[in-house]
Amino acid sequence: MRKVICMLVAVVSLALFSGQAYAQRYLPGMKAVELRGGFAEGSKSPLNHYAGFAVSGYTKKANRWVVGAEYLLKNYGYRNVSVPRAQFTAEGGYYLKFLSDPSKTLFLSIGGSALAGYETVNWGNKMLYDGSKLLAKDAFIYGGAITLELETYVTDRIVLLASVRERALWGGSLSVFTTQFGLGVKFIIN
C-alpha cells in the first residue's frame, strides 16, 4: 500500500509541476547550423529562388551572431525566354531577439547583415539567342540585408524557421533591392 501511495504522490507532483520547467534555449555559447531556402520577389515562371547555409553563435542577452553563404537565382524576361542572374554571397550579421513566448517555443528576431559576393548575368554569356548583346556585366557585389525571422522549436535541438528578408546589393548591373520569403531548419549542435 505504501508503494501505491508513493507512486500516486509522484504522479500528482509531476502533473502539477510539469508546466513550470521550461527548456533551456537561447543560452550563451550555444551553436547552431541552419539550412534555408525560399523564393525571391514572388514565384514567376521559372521560379526565382535562393538557398543558404549559416552557422549561429548565441550571446549572453539571447541574441546571436550569424555567418553564412547564400545562392540566389533570379530570372528576367526577354521576349519569350528568361535571362538568369545568379548571386553568390557571404553573410556576417547580428540578430536581436525581441519577442518570445513564456514556454520558450516561439522566438521573433530582427537582424542586420553585411553581404559581399559575386553576380553573374546569363552565366557570363553576352549573346542572346536572337543575336542581341547583353550590356549587364558580371561583377563583385556588396551591401546588406535586414531580416525578420520567426523560430519555433520542434525539439530542444531542431528549430523550424520562417523569414522575410530585404537585400540591398550594389556593384551589379541590375536591380539593387531583392525581397526574399523563406523557410528553413536549424540544428542546435552545442
Automatic annotation (TrEMBL):
UniProt key word Signal: yes
Signal peptide: 1-23
Keyword Signal listed: yes
Keyword entries, A-Z: Signal
Protein name (record): Conjugal transfer protein
